[in-house]
Amino acid sequence: MKPDVLIIGSGMGGATVAAALADTGRPILIVERGEQLPDSDHARDPQAIFGAGHFRSPEEWLDGEGKPFNARMFYYVGGSTKFYGAVLLRYRAEDFRPMRHLGGKTPGWPVTYDEYEPWYTRAEALFQVRGAAGEDPTEPPRSAPYPYPPVPDEAEIADVRRRLRGIGLHPSSLPLGVDIARWLERGQHPWDGFPDTRSGKMDAETILLTRALERSNVELATRTRVRRLVADQDGNVTGAVVERNGKAELIEAGTVVLAAGAVNSAAILLASGLANSSDQVGRNFMNHNCSAVLAVHPWRHNRSIYQKTLMVNDFYLRGGPDDMPLGNIQLLGRVSRPILKITSGLPGWLAGPIADRAVDFYAMSEDLPSPDSRVTLKGEQIVLNWPRSNWETHLALVAKLKSVLRKAGFPIVLSKPFDRATPSHQCGTARMGNDPRTSVVDPWGRSHDHPNLWVADASVLPTSAAVNPALTVAAHALRVGHAIAEAA
To answer: Which residues form the Glucose-methanol-choline oxidoreductase N-terminal domain (predicted)?
Structure first.
């Protein structure tokens, strides 16, 4: 089949566009450099996942000093959503506007929250989000309730929720794309960081690609890596050069949708020499400032299995020095004995008792866009230079979280920043805007330079906010699908 629409990448962005266009009848080809993730005993084995990196790509990038590192990327059908924490949060309305932080000021978006709201609602319906409206004081206006009630707290987490309320905070249910009963049928493990083998997590493959591929006009090609795009003298992108089975091929298409992730999409555009009249491709890389924070009580055991059901946004918009915004607090997936031993480097005799008595939190602060934070290429190798931004804000958030957890009855609170070699919330490298001189795509994801090229992943996001980007990517991709259908 010669595609009318070529979609590069099968993750959140690519799968959502495919689902949005499937009913149009247009021939659609989705290309994915990885393969379908097989079910195996490794899928619920913490040592295989977090220790041996069984599912992780061995690919190496270079950092800003030219040193190689493993970026811990996952290349499978469904993209990184196969491993994500299934947190499907809307950006706050304030995130779409310029906002001052301790480390600088965000530029704002070329669209408002109100323009995105209907697309958020559609995305929540697609991903069957479990949540509860009205609990979070920063929650933006909604036109519809959540499709399903929230994933229930386990006993120890219900106690944490009560304790946080008792000191005047507003813990709220974390919006999640998880059928918890179905997930636990496969094994008593958390889902955060564990691969979904079509067993209860609402990932891009399970929810969207499976349905799209039921249409005869939609096809998926795996183990097909896009090396570069090609364009004619009129500026129309005519297709992509791919590597399949060790050989180069040209796939031609009338419309091309790039959704390979913020780093890889930028790398493809840079390798192609396209869509970069603004010199913004690869720039403004963002990835959040994050820390794990463990609240420990020596006499209380945490018997939770999955844990990850609540968040606190009391310090999202204010509460820092000069009442500046600090960020989002949410629970991590349960950090078990083997996971803590692997990720902390602590000896087992110490990691075990701590894990048994800890409630595990995730502190996340906004990473600010900068043209010097960027993706470039050295030959065919990706170079990711990610200088820290807004770190003072993150330190203040971690300090605030430690203080409130002690007030809530946890005498021991430990913290550790997340490894910067893991770009799990990558965004910003092909940002949207109205001015072709300062942005790569328009607010609908269409390239300023090439009328038939669209970008449908997190690379278009002008800011990272301080929440998980998955739902915002899905909302953007629905907009892209709608705009492509309207342009036909």
So the answer is: 199-289
Say if CB 342 and CB 51 are below 8 A apart.
Answer: yes
Beta-bridge partner residues of 68:
62
Where do the DSSP E strands lie in 280-411?
Answer: 289-296, 310-312, 328-331, 358-365, 374-378, 381-385
Q: Which two tokens stand for residue 320?
A: 């820092």
pTM check: above 0.85: yes
* pLDDT for residue 422: 74
Residues with Cβ < 8 Å from 408, sequence gap 6 or more? 160, 163, 164, 166, 167, 295
Domain extent at residue 372: 5-487
What's CA 114's distance to the chain center, in Å? 22
**Torsion of the alpha carbons at 179, 136, 13 and 55, rounded to the nearest 10:** -50
- The secondary structure of residue 82, as a DSSP letter, is G
Q: What is the pLDDT of residue 488?
A: 74
Give the number of other Cβ atoms within 10 Å of residue 119's Cβ.
18
Number of separate helices (H) and strands (E) present in the chain = 12, 20
CA distance 285 to 266: 10
Q: How far apart are alpha carbons 470 and 59 in whole angstroms?
A: 23
The DSSP secondary-structure symbol of 302 reads: -
Check residue 407 and report its DSSP letter: H
DSSP summary character for residue 346: -
- 88: confidence class by pLDDT, cuts 50, 70, 90: very high
What is the distance, to the nearest Å, from the Cα of residue 284 to the centroid of all Cα atoms in its chain? 16
Give the strands of the sheet with 247-252, arranged side by side: 224-231, 237-244, 247-252
pLDDT number for residue 1: 66
Give, as one character, the DSSP assignment of residue 97: S
Distance CA 70, CA 59 (A): 6
Q: Mapping DSSP to helix (H, G, I), strand (E, B) and coil, where does residue 238 land?
A: strand
Q: What is the pLDDT of residue 2?
A: 85
Going by pLDDT thresholds of 50, 70 and 90, the confidence category of residue 225 is very high
Residue 421, pLDDT score: 74
The residue-averaged pLDDT of 385-398 equals 96
DSSP per-residue letters across 166-184:
HTT---EEPPB-B-HHHHH
Which CATH number do you get for residue 456? 3.50.50.60
The token pair at 141 is 């206006």
Please choose, from the candidates 393, 405, 416, 404, the residue with its C-alpha nearest in 3D space to the C-alpha of residue 466: 393
pLDDT band at 198 (very low <50, low <70, confident <90, very high): confident
